[in-house]
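call fold target=Signal peptidase I
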Amino acid sequence: MVEPVPSSAAEDEPERAENGENAETRANRKRRNRKAKKQRSFWVELPILIVVALVLAFVFQQFFARVYTIPSASMESTLHGCTGCYGDKVLVDKITYDFTDPGPGDVVVFKGPAPWLENDVPTQRSDNPVVRFFQDIGSVFGLAPPDERDFVKRIIATGGQTVQCCDAQNRVVVDGKALNEPYIHWVDPDNPRQDEFPPVKVPQGDVWVMGDNRNDSCDSRCQGGGGLNGVVPVENIIGKARIIVLPPSRWGGVSDTNPQENAQPAALSLSAASWQQGVPLAVGAVGAWPAVALSRRVGAGVRRAVKRKR
């Protein structure tokens, strides 16, 4: 008697069912694993991305360009700033002077030389270490005043040039020529006069700087007592102010008008008011009359003596 052969299809059915269930379970498990892996990678990579971004920003600001906060009104109206207000945030180019020399009209940020720091009050930092940490971070990215004592001014004269003020038209004079300074801001427009100072020959390797807000800026004229103590070494210059990046209402480039480009011969004598300039002429005219009268008397006496001898 021949026994029927067991059907292989019947035997395979439970296996296929089991394999099908296992495949679906594995697929679901893989999907869950991928989702979990994605979530973990995001939270792991996020702080890495933040650290990389901060490092790149730090390197960029240390070696290429940096954002500085304008803390005072000494450069109005070119740059806006005042104590306790939201001053302009300015991007300062640090690599320009690796290839060129600072020139007249450049608005520069520089570390204060020793004479400038004698009476300067350093930026206040909180005693709280956490707050101080964030202040330091903010200063690096231009969100807070820097801890070091830096200044922003405009270059007026460079090494080897002689600068003084003022000519008869109240203009700064460099090497005998009166400067063209359209950027000057007067606190009192009805009294546009600036303080006088004697001639100063700027040493080689230094620059003479002044604020655009000419009546509200302590610069090379007064820092360290003025004169040679007020000059700034070129090596102290951090960079050239290029762009106002914040606030949006102030977006724009920073003017670098060269005041020496269209300079004109100084008007009459330096540091003398118009009425003073007429004094020598008046004295000469008054003194001429006695001299003429005396010469006439002497001449008449000589002629009379000659006639008697004849």
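return ok
The helical segments are 8-63, 114-117, 129-140, 274-277, 279-309. Confidence is low (pLDDT under 50) at residues 5-19, 271-281.
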